[in-house]
Write a structure and sequence with these properties.
This protein is mainly alpha-helical. The chain contains 6 helices and 3 strands.
Length: about 160
């Protein structure tokens, strides 16, 4: 028999769990902080950013936006990414891609610290997924599918 696995109850459950985890971190003096790194004003990036801001606000995550001009140089982009990677108060980085043509997308992907790569785009994040380690983050669509299966108690064939 076919069962439709609806996402809304999964989102609600995860949001409640994450809100509690954020509160526990704040009690310990840790303010979970996401940096959004965006170059220019692409409409799809702006729409995605609005959604990310709304979700982060709902669960209590602090968000910093680093918006660079569309014509930013590689040097200035690299400096902004390096600064975010090295800032211990930033726990995750959402780097909007693709980057404008004057920037090296591959270089940016490789520069991003896997421990802060919340989109799972770095080699380190992908290696962590395949090796089963806690390096980086898995790609969000795949992770969402796994959360849906877990919520509905559908056995993982890999366990």
């Amino acid at each position: 028999m076919t069962e439709i696995l609806k996402g809304a109850p999964v989102v609600e459950s995860l949001s409640n769990k994450l809100t509690q985890e954020v509160l526990m971190l704040k009690v310990k003096g840790i303010i979970p902080t996401l940096l959004i790194l965006r170059v220019g004003e692409r409409p799809d990036d702006l729409a995605y950013e609005r959604g990310a801001l709304k979700k982060a606000e709902a669960i209590g995550i602090n968000v910093i936006k680093k918006i660079l001009p569309y014509d930013v140089s590689q040097e200035n982009f690299d400096a902004a990414l390096t600064e975010a990677n090295n800032n211990s108060k930033i726990h995750g980085i959402l780097m909007f891609r693709p980057l404008p043509s004057q920037l090296d997308n591959e270089k940016a992907r490789k520069m991003l610290n896997p421990q802060k790569d919340i989109d799972g785009v770095t080699d380190g994040s992908l290696a962590g997924v395949f090796a089963g380690t806690n390096i980086g983050f898995p790609p969000c669509t795949a992770e969402a599918a796994m959360e849906i299966l877990k919520y509905y108690n559908i056995p993982n064939i890999n366990n």
